[in-house]
Specification:
By secondary structure, this protein is an alpha/beta fold. The protein folds into two domains: 7-189 and 228-260, NAD(P)-binding Rossmann-like Domain (Rossmann fold), CATH 3.40.50.720; 190-226. Helices cover 48% and strands 13% of the residues. The chain has helices at 16-27, 40-54, 68-82, 105-133, 154-173, 192-205, 209-218, 229-239; strands at 7-10, 31-35, 58-61, 87-90, 136-141, 179-186, 251-254. It has a seven-stranded parallel beta sheet with strand order 3-2-1-4-5-6-7, sandwiched between helices. The longest helix is centred in the middle third of the chain and has 29 residues, at 105-133.
């Protein structure tokens, strides 16, 4: 399929899952707006690399997703630069773990602000333009933790459950506007951050990285394989296709069987 002529804004896309999604959408022909934090030179290299590799326009915004005014300005800037925001991928997220009674208030506030409120801010800003064009795709990156819970992740689990709820509301409201809204729910995804955690666990326990990965996966997933940013990107591209035009309001698991149990 081709997304030539479409414009995709992907939050939290300077690394990991978000970058994998941005690259997949660029590979299908969409112009891209990256967003996130990190080393400025590395971000610029990634932005320029996407333009060169895929022959599409690629911009960057450093907007703080927890700030409604910055999200609105990012969407407006993307529309001014590229003409529209046809595909919105709300991917930005943070994590912190502690028991409920020990969970710091400031950590709760920041996780809810980015992982939950940021999704609302993005949809609020982008939906009017999508409705005006009569075409749009909203893809909210939830999690297996949007469907089931784990201990010590109260804020993350609460936010990701809320993302699925917001996705369903958007799908109902936009059902006849040419705009779909869906949530992708990854399980364990092999990103550089996760690989560093595996390497540290292997060194601590005196085992190989492969054995550390197997043990890590077995804690949650029947399938002893990580999902990849590229695989999640492929699912996002499918959700933008005509074949997926009546898929809306749906949480789609890509989790090695985690939530099948």
């Amino acid at each position: 399929m081709s997304l030539k002529g479409k414009v995709a804004l992907v939050t939290g896309s300077t690394s990991g899952i978000g970058l994998g999604i941005a690259r997949a959408l660029a590979g299908a022909g969409a112009s891209i707006v990256l967003n996130g934090f990190g080393d400025a030179a590395a971000i610029e290299a990634e932005r320029a690399g996407i333009e060169m590799e895929f022959g599409v326009g690629c911009g960057y915004s450093g907007a703080d997703i927890s700030k409604a005014d910055q999200v609105a300005a990012m969407v407006a800037d993307a529309q001014a630069t590229f003409g529209s925001v046809d595909i919105l991928v709300n991917n930005a997220g943070i994590q912190f773990t502690a028991n409920i009674e020990d969970f710091p208030q400031e950590r709760w506030d920041s996780i809810i602000a980015i992982n939950m409120s940021g999704v609302f801010y993005g949809m609020k800003a982008a939906i009017p333009g999508m409705k005006a064009k009569g075409w749009g795709r909203i893809i909210n990156i939830a999690s297996a933790h949007g469907l089931v819970a784990s201990a010590q992740k109260v804020a993350y689990v609460a936010a990701k459950h809320a993302v699925i709820g917001m996705t369903k509301v958007a799908a109902i409201e936009l059902a006849n506007a040419g705009v779909t809204a869906n949530a992708i729910c990854p399980g364990w995804v092999l990103t550089p951050l996760v690989q560093r955690q595996l390497d540290a666990r292997a060194a601590k326990d005196g085992i190989s990285s492969e054995e550390a990965a197997r043990l890590f996966l077995a804690e949650k997933q029947p399938m002893a394989r990580f999902s990849t940013p590229e695989g999640i990107g492929g699912l996002a591209v499918f959700l933008c296709s005509e074949a997926a035009s009546t898929i809306t309001g749906t949480p789609l698991s890509i989790d090695g069987g985690w939530t099948a149990q």
